[in-house]
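Cont'd.
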Amino acid sequence: MRTIDTKEIKDCVYRLARKAGCTLTSSCRAALTAAKEQETGAAKFALSSLLENEVVAGREGMPVCQDTGMSVVLIELGQDVCLTGAPLKEAVNEGVREAYRDGRFRKSICDPLTRVNTGDNTPAHLHLDLVAGEQVKITYLPKGFGSENMSRLFMLTPAEGVEGIINAVVETVRLAGSRPCPPVYVGVGIGGAFDSCALLAKRALTREVGSRNPREDVAAIEEEILSRVNKLNIGPQGFGGKCTAIGVSCELAPTHIAGLPVAVNIQCHCVRCEKEVL
Amino acid sequence: MRKLTLPLDKETVASLKAGDPVLLSGTIYTARDCAHKRIFALLDEGKPLPFPLKNSIIYYAGPCPAPEGKACGSCGPTTSARMNSFAPRLLDLGLGGMIGKGEMNADVVSAIARNKRVYFAAIGGAGALYGNAILSSTCVAFPDLLSEAVYKFEVVDFPLVVAIDSAGNTIYDR
């Protein structure tokens, strides 16, 4: 049994949030750099601006994007860990609160009806998994909503199969068009149920851009979706071009014999995701 | 790259073609979802607006708080399509144009063509680049909306692309 004070978790969330707000993941940066070489005209101008933007953000100590997002926090908690101190949820929220205050990040969370802002970007969107061992793995994903708004969930029939999955994802990206800040990163959940499928799609976005699912048949679906999406000619910012998506990641879970849920979670080109193991 | 200074005269607007990159300088006003709702409520009640609509440019954006020593924090564009239902009426009332990201619908394209105005696309996600090009920022309305309030910005060399021109051509035709 290992004892961890939740203050350590609060401090970790703080570090991850501060870093994520101001930095792209290295795999995202590499994908944007590669995409720039393929494009011309306004599309190339857009990608050059984005790469320059990250340099300015680093130099000026500013967030890369003003949409510093909804704070999605995924915690894998080893079941041999004994937590002490403030309740876990409070510790996570405090880490977010302090990071958004000190980082001069935008507070983007509000009541869904009155639209009154909570003022500190809390509550965080916390997903907790109990796992074996005595470590705590924390993943911080600030999720912008221009892209979140373009996400969709499909309850396909088993008969629709792989082709149905691919068509659903490509259609989602096509309908999103220029609105989610392409080139996008596409997270896909396949299987599970109505609720867990959407979470699979979100988890897919915590993978490195360009990584492949270890299952060969799933990796082939990822490749096929990427290839078809990049023929849509939406291009960077919707200006037309070869790069509509920088990556596609699919995550799977067993589902019911009667169904084939598919969730598509769209992430803009500004992929920000930081991880740490305590 | 072509440099433009606000306000834009009719000849300049007519010369802008969808796809042209430009660097824009001058005074602009931010407004996004909630601010538009309030502006429409004022219009419906026949009350004056907190900023001049005629020939002004609205930037669909909500900034981050300013870091020490700067006028504004990161401030890239938000998705313009959410303002599709608002833009035509404002254009018909004399709005000079908009800056945002992504396509706008056919009603907006018609309103832009009808009024001979322009819609510029800012590069979504380039928040630091735009924030750094904002020389001054003043909240002119709805401060309770925080980042969604209306801010008056003086900007210099905003990198933009003409996305819908005054003839109704768009860069998004695929």
